[in-house]
Amino acid sequence: PTTTFTAISAGPTHGLALTSSGDVWAWGRNDLGQSARTVPDIAPTLTPTDAGVGGGVPLVQTAAGFTSGGAIDALGRLWTFGADSQGQRGRTAPTDALVPSLTDAPWGAGVSIVDVAAGGFHVLALDDTGVVWAWGDGSNGILGTGDTADVTTPTRTDAPWTTAGRTITDVTTFGDVSLARDDAGNLWSWGADDRGQLGQHDANSGSVPGPVARDWAATPGAVTDVAAGGQHALAVDGSGVVWAWGSNDEGQLAQDTSLSQISFPIPVQADLAVVPVVRVAAGAHHSLALDDQGRVWAWGRNVEGQLGTGGTDARITTPTLTDGQAWTAHGVSITDVVAGPAHSLAIDTEGRLWGWGDGSSAQLTAEHFPSGTRTPVKLSEVAP
Predict the structure, then answer these.
(1) What's the CA gap between 161 and 180, in Å, rounded?
(2) Is the N-terminal amide bond of 370 cis, ω within 30° of 0?
(3) Which of 59, 118, 172, 213 sits at 20 to 30 Å (Cα–Cα) from 10?
(4) To the nearest 5 percent, what fractions of the chain are helix, strand and coil?
(5) Are the CB atoms for 302 and 308 separated by under 8 Å?
(6) Per-residue pLDDT for the chain (384 aa), expressed as one digit of tens each?
């Protein structure tokens, strides 16, 4: 049968991919069960998970954290797997496990989880009533619960958006910053702010969600996509313009590195400004944008080749097209991109996976282990 992929998520040392039939495949490290396989070794190639993710129910979304993972099934239940050192599996009795299990579900019967995001050692989930739940490591207020304590079971975040009459539609997190988008296209942020990554015009960590500065307020549709990086963030407005804020030490805001950080969203200029963008992704120190023609743009740190341009520049501060010769040779374009800390992944129009950047833990599969690659390589083939 044909195996095609519809969604991907990237951890530092492993990846998860969702197939069109609702199964999850994984690759990379699994020493803590983060790849949902019962054998705790490196998966050198894309391998179907064998630990019962979903319990026989098709899956609709996956999230790869640093040492753990999660998946939502078609019934709106949330499964977690991997490390549980700080309660990131969302269960009353924290235990690392190679076998996935359902999280505790304080949201109650009849409520479904519709979005999940995994960070360093914590998880965010959104239910279908618009409530955001968080658990795991509470450092820097990353859980949005009003303090910095670890939480081992799903706990409601504070929700100042309800006072504004808004409902959250999706959540994202990476490292120590969390972001949520509401139904009016506003952004809310919480967590660490030492590099301005909350986008709130200051540099004070916040354990309660606060509004990101709305400099894009006049654009149609406000924010349509958002991505949290290591110490920076990206957003796309209704006109397809990319906005960036936070750390710029590697040019990840598409600014000269003499400007080390910016604490509010600014538009990304250069060639990218005239090409409508539909999707953004952010790694530890690099940024990606997918335009409406299926091309990938990249900027920021490039020491590990995570920009995919083929060059050896240590950093690139202007959005530059990733070398797409590999997929254009197949007559396809890209439909989605995600970023790990130092590597990048993409899906093409036929459901193949592509990757570039750091491969030191088989996060690009063992074909490119251990050195990685500076140009995109095919990680999967569409089986006949």
Answers:
(1) 10
(2) yes
(3) 213
(4) 5, 45, 50
(5) no
(6) 578 999 999 999 999 999 999 999 999 999 999 999 888 888 888 999 987 899 999 999 999 999 999 999 999 999 999 999 999 999 887 777 788 999 999 999 999 999 999 999 999 999 999 999 999 999 999 999 999 999 999 999 999 999 999 999 999 999 889 999 999 999 999 999 999 999 999 867 789 999 999 876 666 568 999 999 999 999 999 889 999 999 999 999 999 999 999 999 999 977 787 789 999 999 999 999 999 999 999 999 999 999 999 999 999 999 999 999 999 998 999 999 999 999 999 999 999 999 999 999 899 998 766 789 999 999 998 754
Please tell me whether the overall predicted TM-score, pTM, comes out greater than 0.85 for this model. Answer: yes
DSSP string, 55-110: TTSPEEEEEE-SSEEEEEETTS-EEEEE--TTSTT--SS---EEEEEEPP-TT-TT
Contact indicator for 235, 242 with CB cutoff of 8 Å: yes
β-bridge partners, 8: 17
Q: Starting at the earlier edge strand, list the strands of the sheet with 353-357.
A: 334-339, 343-348, 353-357, 373-378
Of 160, 262, 278, the C-alpha closest to 211 is 160
DSSP 3-state assignment of 224?
Answer: strand
